Description:
Layout: H1 3-8, H2 29-40, H3 44-47, H4 49-56, H5 62-85, H6 92-100, H7 105-139, H8 145-160, H9 164-191, H10 195-198, H11 210-227, H12 232-235, H13 243-270, H14 275-281, H15 290-299, H16 301-335, H17 355-367, H18 376-401, H19 416-430, H20 435-460
Helix pairs in contact: 2-9, 2-13, 2-16, 4-11, 4-14, 5-11, 5-13, 5-18, 5-19, 6-7, 6-18, 7-8, 7-16, 7-17, 7-18, 7-20, 8-16, 8-17, 9-13, 9-16, 11-18, 15-16, 16-17, 18-19, 18-20
Amino acid sequence: MARGDSSRTTKPPAAAAPPARGLARGLGLRGALALNLIDMIGVGPFITLPLIVQAMGGPQAMLGWLLGAGLALCDGLVWAELGAALPGEGGTYHYLSEIFGRERWGKLLSFLFIWQLLFSAPLTIASGCIGLALYAAYLWPGLHAGVVAAGCCLLALGLAYQRIGWINRVSQWLWAGVALTVGWVIFAGATHFHAARAFDFPPHAFALGGGFFLGLGSAMSIATYDYWGYENANYLAGEVVRPERTLPRAILGSIGIVAALYFAMNVTVLGVVPWRTLLAGAAGNAQAHVISAMMQRIYGSGAARVATLLIVWTAFASVFSLLLGYSRVIYAAAAGGNFFPAFARLHPRHRFPTTALLALGLVAAGFCFLRLDEVIAALVAIRVLLQYLLQAIGLIVLRRRQPGLRRPFRMPLYPLPALAAIAGFLFLLLGPQGALHELAWGGAVLAAGTAVFVARARRARGWPAGEG
Length: 468
């Protein structure tokens, strides 16, 4: 982010017209909370339950949801403190730059974060579109999934290409549909719940062997993918009103709400649909229709179609939120001079990033023709290695280097939550089955990004190739 923008974030936000340059502030607590929620509750939890059950071989897979919630809370406290102390546009990019120094290591680490975003952000957006298309196939089996997913991505791009005040309202409308969907699924499962079915554990379900921990790692990795999004408003901090207060509340509030909803939804679904049925469906496309099948079993085909439409709405809302957040991160990097300058362009009237938004939306539309199960594990490995782990370590470094920094929100029980987040992320990198293969993807992105950074430094005669 440009130095002028960084200094502006330390002043009280203006309630009147936006400044001549930079982003306009118009996102309040309700809008920020809604953006986080619709990012978190995308299509993921509706299609990943069979995959989590498959990972551990029974309903004991709910441990993955619980531990995933604990990791999200610990990491959320990291985001909350950094967002309040360093309320600049771009989230992790801004934090790494400020913590490790804008001219040396901070410049490298923040560049690597943006570099991995070129891979992970369009894939994450595309994963929501692909999940939407899989559920849409329940309603219209003849449609091509890739075409539907790409069309969804382009429609979300059109809605996101608007001024922030309009987006503040749209995010709340979309969240209303998300809340209705999740609430109905929980109500349906709770009113037809069978405890014996939900807690029908297989023999030796909790035998603490190597297979148990491999399965737990895989289940927790999938759950982490589903929980991600609680930080989305941090990426738009330059457009948030009173970010030092709004961001911690939006982060912790969204984690608490979603953790309760996820656990309730998954337990109640297991109380209606036997886990062995989910296990059989995880091997094919049946997992895309788990909630539709449950609603059909309870209420009939008409209700199943309505529920499916609501899930499609939920998936679309998540895609919309992801496009907004990631486009602001790339804008912040370009505006700060650490990425290609074309991505720093703003709309001349409404002051939102144009090039970054268009690039993400169009690339994601192309990625919509990939398979969903091919991207989740790689996404987790890449983002944990080059974002979440670095940022949790960075909080500890910031506390040591700048003990007198004004911190409107301070992590309780410091440094325990930060250390727990670091341990959890290391477990996600090394614990799941096939982790070394996925970690290789993260290593390849890291190596390529470092090579590009050094090449750019040589051309500019900057650090580490020159005197910078």
